[in-house]
Structure formats: C-alpha cells, structure tokens
Amino acid sequence: TDAEVSTRKKTFAEVQTERLDQAERTVLIKCPSKLNEKKLLQYLSSHGNVKSHFFFENRGISALIEFSEKSSIASLQDAVGIPGASEHHVVPFKSRLFTFTLKNPVSQHMEGTPLHLSPQCHIPVKDLIQKLCLADSISSQMYILLNEYQLTEENIKLRFLACSLVRDFTRAYFPDSTVKPFGSSVNTFGKLGSDVDMFLDFRDTGKHTTKMKKGPFEMEYQMKRLPSERLATQRILSVIGDCLDNFGPGCANVQKILNARCPLVKFSHQPTGFQCDLSVSNSIAIRSSELLYIYGCLDSRVRALVFTIRCWARVHGLTNSAPGTWITNFSLTMMVMFFLQKRSPPIIPTLDQLKELADEKDRHIIGGYDCSFVSDLRKIKPTKNTETLDVLLGEFFEYFGNFDFRKNSINLRKGKEVNKPESSPLYIWNPFEQDLNISKNVNQPQLEKFIAMARESAWILQKEDKTQQMINKEPWGLAALLIPFGKSNSSRMKNRMKGIGSETIRSLLDSLKLNNANSQQKAVGK
C-alpha cells in the first residue's frame, strides 16, 4: 500500500485529498444473497480495473467497489437500467448506488461462495470485557479496546463515499463544491458506529485568483446578495436538504435544523448505514479535526488512552449520545490531551509549541482567531517520556480525581492550569476561539459524578491483586473498570461523594427549577 511505501506520516490535507479522490472512483452495489465473488469481480473488470473492494452486511449484502479510473464508473452506469415502475414511480436520478440481482438464479444459486464481511460496528462491552480478561497487562487491554473500537480502513472508505454521494447533489447547484467529512471521521479518534459529520465547502474556488490579475478589467460574477452569511447558509442547506429528501436514493428521515447556532441537515444514509449531519464549511471545526489528527499520530499511547477513557465514561453514564448537561466526548478528549501535556516529560506538545513550529503555509487566521500550527509531523520532536499505559491510566484518574475544578480551568494552548475566567463548573478553553468554554454545558452534579468515578477507578487500580483475580477468573485491570460501580460497593461510593454533597443537592434543585422554567417557557412559546 501507499502507506508502507512512504515511511513519513502524511499530513492531514494529504490524507483528505487522497481519500476524497478514492471516493470519486467508488460505487456501492447491493448484491444478490447467493453471490459468487469471482464472477462479480470478473464482470466489473469488464468496465475497468478494480483497485479494491470489500463486502459488508447492511440489510443484505453490499459491496464497495473502488475502480482505478473514474471513467470505469461511467462505463458501468451506461450498462445499468432504470427500475421498472410497477407499483412505484421512480425519481430518475442516476447515482453510484446499484442493485445487482441474478438473471438466472436457479442455475447460479449453487455457486454462492462464502464472503468475508467487514464489520461496521464494534462488539458489545460484555464481549469486550471477556477479551480484556485474557490480556497480560492493562497496556495490552487498552490496545485491544482500541483495536475493537477504532474505525477500520473499510469503514473510513464508506464514510468518504457517503460524503462523495452527497457531493454529487450539491454539484448540481454549485459545480465547484466539495463535501468533506470532519470531526471523528477524520481526526483518528472515531469509533465504529459513530455519526458522519460532513460539511459543504465552496473554498476550492481560490484556485484562479492568479488568473484574475491579467487583463485590463476587474471581473467578477454577478451573484445573489443576502444580508448575512448565516442567511445564505440557511438557504443553501434548506435547498440541499429538500433535494436529498426528494431525490436522494436511500436518504431517509431528513431533518432541517436551520435555526441552530450552526445550521445543519440531519439524515440517515441507508446505503452506507450512517447517520449524517451536513453543515456548511466551518473552518475552525476543520482546524480542531487536524489538531487532534496530529496529536493522534504523534504517539500510540494518545489514542489508546482516549478510547479507553471514553469507553469508561460511557459505561458509567458520564457521557450520553443525547445533548444535555453531560460531559461530551470532545471535552473528555481535550482533558486527556491536557493530562498528556502535563506529564513529565510531556507526551504531546502544547498548542503554542505547535504554533511556534508553523511556517508560512501553516498560517490560518479565521474570524480574527489565530489558528496556526505546524502540519508536517516530521518537525515535531518525539517525546522522551516512556511511561506505560498502565501507569498513565491510573495517573489520569488520580489527576482529575484531585483536580481543583473550583479554581482552575484547562488550557491546551499553554498546557497549564489557568484561573477560571468565569464560574462554569468545568471550564475547558476552546483551543482556537479563546473566549469560549467547550464544556459550558456541564453542570455541577455531572462534574461531581465524574470526580467520584475517577476516584473510585484510581482506588480499584491501586488496591487490586491482579494474579488473584486472574486465578479467580474475575475481571481485572481495565475490565474491572468497565463494569458499572455501585452494585457491590455503594457504601464506598457514598464516601467518595463526601465533601461534595450539599452543593450537588442545591444545584440539582436549581437545575430542576431551571428545567421547570424552561418547559414553561417552551409551553408559552408554542
């Protein structure tokens, strides 16, 4: 593979470009249930060289087929028919999604070959715990968890294909537009089964600025003008949303959420099986994705620790897929990064250090915020820290179990605890928009639950007798942390909450009042 040829790690932009290009040469086929893989590939090869392919389960068997040349897709499309309108009438939009059925199933059905199916979701936690018990150290347990949960090569291809299929629609209106994934699909911290965040970008238009200098005229397009960028975004997304809803094969449950802080269209893309969120280009979100990509590539311990902490938080109900007063995965990830910056010696550099390494092409000023940092991983010196993940996991719980959240905030630019600028229970500086707190949503009871769980986990790791537990076939190490607490040791959990108490009760009451007030307001607003 290309990755093995080049020993240096690719930059974020290189990976994106390569993947988007790959997706443009890709089609998705719903296959007959009894399928002979060799016959399928033989037929497809008549349209051009098939560079890679895999099968997966999604309401039957599907195949993702990547051709070497884009022209092979046109050749295949020429051979494909439109479904007969027996009981339904079809919208005649020709996409890169096809259904193959056998012409003569009786004679062919004996030849079905067993297919290797690529899993598109991770194993349940109870199965994970059993695997973890067989490992020989906490460190290897954490790498097992990482391997079970992280995005596979196949899943990443499917994510980029979903974006590419949406882009086929946006290009009908905006021929230069691209649709790119951001967030967990590309930042190396994505988990199998997570949503695909994608954004619509018109920025590839910067290519012909040099040509404009020639000739005696200032020339520009006549374009519709609107009073604000927000309104333009809402209109564009509204039309694209309608388009997907009315014409998009396999696009279901399309919801337009245009009044959100960041307007978006949510839909489920059935052919790939993803829940998707489409918004219009948000440069700062892309910078955050790239920053995490860099941290994730620098040291293998970074991703292992993040995946572990996020799985732990989910098991104990500290995070939740619904929005609310819980800590988000993004906030947790930033807390792990901060902890790794604070190790001695540090395992990853601060954002200010990455900014010092930036050269001219890495300069990004977005909406007045300096979002510059180095993109070439070779310029970043590897860490001299050799701590094992066994140590780091225990230390993480110890550090945040005893962190002074009342007084201090978490600042990744400086890699330092800084006095809180305002009184939110948990204050994590947005790495780029320096006046925002990315964990503003978290309330006091949720923070205190996090602290209690961290203390309990640190305690379990310190007191445990691994050999004894392995002999007794009891879950040990990380496995012991992924079983909800409080079943056997509720009295101890009460002690962990000591000194945290009365405030929590007060703020719970306050939040009940707030919720009450909110629901009354909503009722009034209706």
Automatic annotation (TrEMBL):
Its cofactor is Mn(2+); Mg(2+). Pfam families: MTPAP-like_central, PAP_assoc, RL. Keywords: Magnesium, Metal-binding, Transferase. Residues 391-426 form the PAP-associated domain. The keyword Oxidoreductase does not apply. GO terms for cellular component: mitochondrion. Residues 11-79 form the RL domain. One of its GO terms (molecular function) is poly(A) RNA polymerase activity. Residues 138-296 form the Poly(A) RNA polymerase mitochondrial-like central palm domain. One of its GO terms (biological process) is RNA 3'-end processing. This is PAPD1 protein. It comes from Gymnorhina tibicen (Australian magpie). The gene is Mtpap.
